[in-house]
């Protein structure tokens, strides 16, 4: 089957069409202009119709984002044996990983996962009667030396944006401003660095197969290489999300769909790879332990 391992090959129905179609439909919301009520209403409409929107003038310092992008590139550029020193293991899911599967097909990507709250204490199982807990800690690479501090600083900045968005979403649902954000005093999210290397058969594989995100919402930074596609609700077509420099892509995740009684939608998305350019993205999921257990109010 061509030049890639069969483990990466999608079933024919799920292979991407590598068209150059560009669609500019997903709402772009400027967080610096309108008043709170207007913003909440725009966001609410986007969450209903698309489950996705982009934000500009969002308050995350560009310097902090540039720095984290730089250390991510430097880390994934390291030789494989160096990256594997920070590899995930069976006891701790943090660190480097290059064997993730989505829907049983291997993704064409490498990732680095770090806990936003270190240590993070989580229930040992999804069984609500199981009292056992597990403690997880971060695994940091030695190189680049500024990796840890840079990522931690970025997490603090992007978390402020995630909380602001949760407040606006709460207002948009007719709830008190802090109704949703109050559930996140105990943060259990994992900041992920995604690296998609060039792929010799981009018509057969995906950077990430189709999926919906867990948690409440995801705040995603992507670079200038397109690749993210979402499944349009109106007709089930896969449409690309155009990268706007320095914007964030926000998507409703599963817990928010449940909390909104299915008014807001957690939409399927995937990542298409290409044969010439590498791509980087950084998702920040807003999660908490009840959401990650699936036990939502
Ligand atoms: O790389 C992207 O643009 C999307 C990443 C994503 O969907 C995920 O990590 O869940
Ligand atoms: Fe995702």
In words, what does this structure look like?
The chain has 297 residues and is an alpha+beta fold. Helix content is 24%, strand content 23%. It is built from six helices and 16 strands. An eight-stranded mixed β-sheet has the order 1-2-14-11-16-9-6-3. Helix 2 (62-76) crosses helix 4 (147-172). The protein starts with 27 loop residues before the first strand and ends with a helix. It binds 2-oxoglutaric acid and fe (ii) ion.
Main features:
single chain; four-stranded antiparallel β-sheet; 23% strand; disordered C terminus; binds 2-oxoglutaric acid; binds fe (ii) ion
Please, what is the oligomeric state?
A: single chain
Percent strand: 15-25%
Number of helices: 6
Label the structural class: alpha+beta
Spell out which ligands are present: 2-oxoglutaric acid, fe (ii) ion
Outline type: globular
Rounded average pLDDT: 91
Kindly provide the radius of gyration, computed on alpha-carbon positions and rounded to a whole number of angstroms. 19 Å
Order of helices and strands: EHEHHEEEEEEHEEEEEEHEEH
Largest sheet: 8 strands, mixed
Strand ordering within the main sheet = 1-2-14-11-16-9-6-3
Summarize the amount of helix as a percent range.
10-25%
**In whole angstroms, how far apart are the ends?**
47 Å
Topology, number of strands: 16
Provide the low-confidence segments as ranges: 290-297
